[in-house]
Amino acid sequence: MHPYYLREKRESGRNSLEIVVGIVAIGLLAACVLADLPRVDSPTSAQRSRDYQQHGQSIAALEATIRTLQTKNEAADVQLAKIAQLLESTRADLINLIDGHSSLSTQVVAATTRLQELETTVQETNEHATKLSEFISMHQLLEERDAAISESKRSGDQVRDLTLRLQRAGVYP
Questions:
Q1: Quick check: 148 and 156 in contact, CB under 8 A?
Q2: For the chain, which residues make up each domain, given as ranges?
Q3: Contact, 163 vs 172, CB < 8 A?
Q4: pLDDT (tens digit, 0 to 9) for every residue of the chain, 173 residues total?
């Protein structure tokens, strides 16, 4: 087998054209970059003085702002401490309130139990009172009946006695 080599043909006109186009492009880029650069002027002493004065004013304004913010921060810290103390006080009050509520709940349960016991006692007493009033009514009825029977016997005796008298007197057959 024979080795096969691929050879490039160089076209001399084409290669030179590429070089020229590359150089022109680099020159054009350099011109664009130089056109965008700001003009280098050396500042005058008046301009420097004005710049220093503006920087000094800016620094003074920033320092005043920092002092104001520090004062506000200190006031906020004081207020935060007061709020934290108030929160702790409120928590303690809440714990006391919860303890009081628990105590009251226990007392309410005890009072409710006692009230139920009293209601049961009242019902039993009412039942006894009803039975007692029935017994008293029955006793009064029996006494009235006995009194009526006694009265009727006495009346019967009187009628017999009167009848005997009338018969003896001959008025009644």
A1: no
A2: 89-173
A3: yes
A4: 555 544 455 555 567 788 888 899 898 888 877 776 555 556 677 787 888 888 888 888 888 998 998 998 899 999 999 999 999 999 999 999 999 999 999 999 999 999 999 999 999 999 999 999 999 999 999 999 999 999 999 999 999 998 888 888 888 76
Read off the tokens for 79.
């207020």
Long-range CB contacts for residues 149-152, cutoff 8 Å, separation at least 24: none
Q: Between vectors from CA 70 to CA 68 and to CA 75, what angle results, nearest 5°? A: 95
The distance of Cα 100 from the centroid of its chain, to the nearest Å, equals 20
What is the spatial distance between Cα 149 and Cα 142, in angstroms, rounded to a whole number? Answer: 10
End-to-end CA distance of the chain: 189
